[in-house]
């Protein structure tokens, strides 16, 4: 009997061991098997890309008035022409210092891009008559207290004031003037003296004020006869404020229509990669773990939780090794367990893997001036740089052969002209470069566009997990101009004091969650896309021009450069969309609607006649 029990005990132990081994194999397989999510969009045919923006076919509907004799002429001109171009508002540009003002009745809208309205001279009465007859005029600059301003001020909604300027250091949006903007406060701290002191009359509808006790009106509109004035009393003229300029212009017409991208994408730079470098002091403080354990058991599960909660499709950017090799001896990464595990989970969650580099050295060659901002080695030859990139691509291909590497993110967002040319000439599979939207001293900054050489530019607007007021301001402006969100963070953000590690990962995660909650509540129909699909969406946006004709409460659009679909923002200041042919329309919030065009001819019935 004892022998039988002994043999039974041995057999039971063996069974338990086999079960444990099987369980371990199952866990390992979870991390090593992956599936690729099919791209939402196809690449745009070259025939469409090459014929983009056929402006000659679109008649100018806006008169943009500038004055080269007044201050900030070049800055104002660049800002306004950029916004009008992005919105596909076709303009005739007139410099009052050298040209005469044409007949206002040849245009639907006009934008005045200078503060001293005396430059209008006798045409100020023509402007007023045109507005009262149905014209729409936007004043981009805080007006100077001149006779012409006082002549027009009451019609612009000003009851009194305008003879002095006020200090203000922040802005509060008071309603649904911008998507996601209701109650938004942006306080920059350093006072600006670029707004006139004024009180408004009953005609004015205020959309933004200073965030101090004075509540200086900064943005408002005022109906005038059959027409309308919209006023920017702010002096904001930066790339980061294009969205608010777009929003003010969109107040002019009874229904404003402009193309958008409709995409939300999130990048994980340096992921997958070796264990991130940095100080794990605060990880140990909060989690009693080392860095490797923290990433596997805390950070990554939280990132996946965000993905599951909001439907985010993360784009990871692979780094092979952090060694600063530049001379051609690029050993293949042997410790691939971490790459396989995290990469598979990323792909299984609908994401993709792009290229950050073999190491974290930007594609910059001998002689590149980093201006003392960073201390990176430069590449000695293009052959070495190309060999390193191919080594990283080989690592992806060996681990994830079904994942196409088509996105490149420059390390530290630095990319030389020679490095970019190398990508174009030698790595044709790289179709998208994702760097920065806002300009820096040495960084590679971008627009949302297809470049002349065919590479799609998809800049990241915001980054990290601190997500302070300025970041959210940038995000708000991009959302309203492009209906886009582009964000990136590094795994080692949580190891860097400048990026919030002292606050701890729990606080940083809350910041990310709060931001995502704002984004997807404000833009409930924005598409979650990988960066490569966002690139395809950008190519459709970039190819598009709009020809518009209105009649009997209907907006008729001809979409030039249309391929298979296009997205347009529709702001209905009067009425609302009742019927659409050639597409479908969804309400976003307030007066904003998102139109998905499925044909190149679209008709929107609003019931409001311009």
Task: List its traits.
Rossmann fold; 3 domains; TIM Barrel; 9-stranded mixed sheet; alpha/beta; globular; 610 residues; single chain
Give the SSE layout:
Elements: H1 2-32, H2 46-49, E1 62-66, H3 73-87, E2 91-95, E3 109-112, H4 123-132, E4 136-139, H5 147-153, E5 158-173, E6 185-200, E7 204-210, E8 217-224, E9 227-232, H6 242-249, E10 255-260, E11 263-268, H7 281-287, H8 291-310, E12 314-319, H9 337-348, E13 352-357, H10 382-399, E14 407-408, H11 417-426, E15 432-433, E16 449-450, E17 456-457, E18 462-463, H12 469-482, E19 484-489, H13 505-522, H14 531-542, E20 545-551, E21 554-560, E22 566-572, E23 579-581, E24 583-589, E25 592-597, E26 601-605
Parallel strand pairs: 1-2, 1-3, 3-4, 4-9, 11-12, 11-19, 12-13, 14-15, 15-17, 18-19
Antiparallel strand pairs: 5-6, 5-7, 7-8, 8-9, 10-22, 16-17, 20-21, 21-26, 22-25, 23-26, 24-25
Helix pairs in contact: 1-9, 3-6, 6-12, 8-13
Write up what this structure looks like.
- By secondary structure, this protein is an alpha/beta fold.
- It has three domains: 55-252, 3-Layer(aba) Sandwich (Rossmann fold); 263-538, Alpha-Beta Barrel (TIM Barrel); 544-605.
- It is built from 14 helices and 26 strands.
- The chain has helices spanning 2-32, 46-49, 73-87, 123-132, 147-153, 242-249, 281-287, 291-310, 337-348, 382-399, 417-426, 469-482, 505-522, 531-542; strands at residues 62-66, 91-95, 109-112, 136-139, 158-173, 185-200, 204-210, 217-224, 227-232, 255-260, 263-268, 314-319, 352-357, 407-408, 432-433, 449-450, 456-457, 462-463, 484-489, 545-551, 554-560, 566-572, 579-581, 583-589, 592-597, 601-605.
- The strands form five sheets. A nine-stranded mixed β-sheet has the order 2-1-3-4-9-8-7-5-6.
- Helix 1 (2-32) crosses helix 9, helix 3 (73-87) crosses helix 6 (242-249) and helix 6 (242-249) packs across helix 12.
């Amino acid at each position: 009997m004892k022998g039988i029990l002994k043999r039974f005990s041995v057999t039971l132990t063996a069974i338990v061991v086999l079960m444990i081994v099987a369980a371990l194999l199952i866990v390992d397989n979870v991390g090593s098997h992956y599936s690729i999510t099919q791209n939402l969009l196809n690449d745009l045919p070259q025939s469409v890309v090459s014929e983009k923006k056929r402006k000659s076919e679109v008649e100018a509907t806006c008169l943009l008035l500038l004055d080269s004799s007044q201050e900030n002429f070049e800055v104002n001109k660049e800002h306004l022409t950029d916004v009008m171009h992005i919105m596909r508002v076709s303009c005739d540009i007139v410099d009052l210092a050298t040209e005469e003002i044409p007949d206002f009745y040849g245009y639907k809208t006009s934008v005045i891009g200078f503060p001293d309205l005396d430059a209008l001279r006798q045409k100020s009465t023509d402007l007023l008559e045109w507005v009262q007859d149905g014209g729409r005029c936007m004043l981009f600059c805080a007006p100077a207290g001149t006779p012409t301003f006082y002549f027009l001020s009451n019609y612009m909604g000003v009851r009194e004031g305008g003879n002095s300027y006020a200090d203000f250091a922040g802005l509060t949006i008071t309603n649904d003037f911008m998507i996601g903007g209701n109650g938004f406060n942006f306080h920059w701290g350093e006072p600006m003296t670029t707004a006139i002191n004024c009180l408004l009359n009953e005609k004015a509808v205020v959309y933004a004020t200073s965030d101090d006790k004075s509540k200086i009106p900064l943005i408002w509109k005022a109906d005038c006869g059959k027409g309308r004035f919209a006023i920017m009393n702010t002096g904001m003229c930066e790339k980061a404020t294009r969205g608010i300029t777009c929003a003010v212009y969109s107040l002019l017409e009874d229904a404003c229509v402009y193309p958008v991208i409709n995409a939300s994408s999130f990048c994980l730079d340096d992921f997958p990669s070796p264990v991130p470098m940095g100080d794990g002091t605060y990880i140990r403080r909060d989690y009693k773990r080392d860095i490797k354990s923290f990433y596997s058991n805390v950070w990554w599960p939280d990132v996946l939780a965000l993905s599951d909660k909001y439907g985010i499709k993360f784009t990871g950017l692979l780094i092979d090794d952090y060694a600063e090799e530049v001379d051609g001896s690029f050993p293949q990464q042997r410790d691939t367990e971490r790459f396989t595990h995290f990469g598979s989970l990323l792909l299984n969650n609908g994401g993709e893997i792009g290229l950050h580099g073999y190491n974290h050295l930007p594609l910059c060659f001998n002689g590149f001036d980093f201006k003392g901002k960073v201390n990176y080695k430069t590449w000695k030859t293009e052959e070495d740089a190309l060999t390193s990139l191919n080594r990283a691509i080989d690592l992806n291909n060996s681990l994830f052969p079904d994942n196409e590497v088509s996105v490149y993110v420059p390390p530290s967002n630095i990319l030389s002209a020679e490095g970019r040319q190398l990508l174009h000439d030698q790595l044709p599979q790289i179709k998208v470069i994702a760097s920065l939207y806002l300009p820096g001293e040495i960084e590679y900054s971008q627009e949302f566009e297809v470049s002349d050489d065919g590479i799609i530019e998809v800049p990241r607007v915001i980054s990290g997990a601190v997500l302070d007021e300025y970041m959210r301001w940038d995000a708000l402006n991009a959302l309203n101009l492009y209906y886009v969100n582009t964000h990136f963070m590094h795994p080692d953000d949580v190891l860097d004091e400048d990026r919030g590690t002292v606050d701890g990962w729990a606080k940083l995660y809350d910041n990310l969650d709060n931001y995502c909650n704002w984004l997807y509540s404000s833009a409930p129909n924005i598409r979650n896309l990988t960066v490569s699909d966002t690139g395809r969406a950008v190519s459709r946006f970039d190819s598009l021009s709009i020809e518009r004709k209105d009649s009997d409460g209907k907006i008729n659009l001809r979409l030039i450069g249309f391929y298979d679909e296009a997205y347009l923002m529709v702001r209905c200041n009067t009425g609302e969309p009742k019927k659409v042919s050639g597409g479908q329309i969804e309400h976003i919030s307030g007066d904003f609607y998102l139109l998905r065009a499925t044909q190149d001819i679209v008709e929107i019935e609003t019931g409001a006649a311009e």
